[in-house]
Amino acid sequence: MFDPNSPELARQVQTLDHDGPAVPAFLGRHRSFFTLVAVVVAQVLVLSLQITRNNHVRLIRFWTVEAFDPLQRSLGGIMNVSFNAYRTYSHLWRAEQENQELHAQLVAAQAQIQRLGEQAGEAQRLRTVLDFKNQLEFQTVAAEVIASSPGENSNAIFIDKGSDSGLTTDLAVITPEGVVGKILAIFPHSAQVLLISDPSSGVGVTLAQSRVQGILKGGSNSFCDVHYIMNEQAVARGEGVVTSGLDQIYPKGLPVGTVVSAGEGNIYKTINVKPSVDMNRLEVVLVVLKPGSADQQALNRPLRPQ
After folding, report:
1. Parallel, antiparallel, or unpaired: how do β-strands 191-195 and 224-227 relate?
2. How far apart (Å, rounded) are the C-alpha atoms in residues 217 and 203?
3. Which of 7, 29, 135, 147 is the most buried (most CB within 10 A)?
4. Are strands 240-243 and 224-227 parallel, antiparallel or unpaired?
5. Residue-wise pLDDT tens digits, 263-304
6. C-alpha atoms less than 13 angstroms from C-alpha of 15 in its C-beta half-sphere
7. What is the tens place of the pLDDT at every residue in 44-78?
8. Domain coordinates of the chain in residue numbers?
């Protein structure tokens, strides 16, 4: 049964008293102190509103400025740093854009310069060929090199002129530097040229100083060899080699190459010649027409309407 005087009930009541809210009790016990503090603070605020400092600045305003000045300075510093960082980034971004634009313009200008240089070089080569053509005593046709025969041992090229331009086989092909070769095969709009560096070619030549004659054929490493010159003939290194005209293909006196070495063999000398023309840099050549070929070429041209 319920016993109001039991010790257990007394302990529970004490526990409830200790676990009750402590803050209201604390405020209740110190109510006078907190009232005094509130009155003092109110008086200070009232006095600060009434008291003025130098330059007629109220004390409350001075306190407020002093209290918020560090915060204002910090915020101002952060804003300045942020603004400077943004401005720096903006300048760097614009500089990067300008750098890219200038780089693109530089690449375009370099390409334009290269293109103009190539055009100037081509014009100079054509002018050289034209001047050489005008100095020749025989008829020639200018042609452009369009291809070379495939293969490692290839010593042939193709030009953009053929039978429609009056060309035939066994016509000499030359440049201002010297002899290139002869036409091997003819087509309507193109022709195949056998270079003098091919072993199957043959050019009648004369040594410029000794005036000894021989046959020049293709050798190794893009060089040529002169055959059928006796061992007792004197051949000097650096001596020029020109066409003799005895092969009835190449006109007489055209440069062919330069002697780079000469030695004795069983009967004939072994003479190595470097061609005057760099066969790997051929672009424009002249095809030497035989007498009567110019008239035939004129007949092959289509008539223009009157």
Report:
1. unpaired
2. 7
3. 147
4. unpaired
5. 998 899 999 999 999 988 899 999 999 876 544 454 445 444
6. 6
7. 666 555 555 555 555 556 656 666 667 767 777 78
8. 7-50, 140-298
3-state secondary structure of 61: helix
Indicate the CATH number for domain 140-298: 2.40.10.340
Contact 190, 158 (CB under 8 A): yes
Give the residue carrying structure tokens 């095969």.
185
* Contact assessment for residue 165 and residue 141, using Cβ atoms and an 8 Å cutoff: yes
Whole-model pTM above 0.90? Answer: no
CA distance 4 to 100: 95
CA dist., res. 262 & res. 274, Å (int):
12
Task: Give, for 46, the enclosing helix (H) or strand (E).
Answer: helix 31-50
- Give me Rg for the CA atoms of the chain: 53
Amino acid identity, position 241: V
Residues 6+ apart with CB under 8 A from 261: 237, 270, 271, 272
Residues in contact with 18: Cβ distance below 8 Å, sequence separation at least 6, in sequence order: none
Return the structure tokens found at 3. 């016993």
Distance CA 76, CA 70 (A): 10
At residue 31, φ and ψ (nearest 5 deg) are -60, -40
Length of the chain equals 306
The answer to whether 128 and 285 have CB atoms below 8 angstroms apart is no
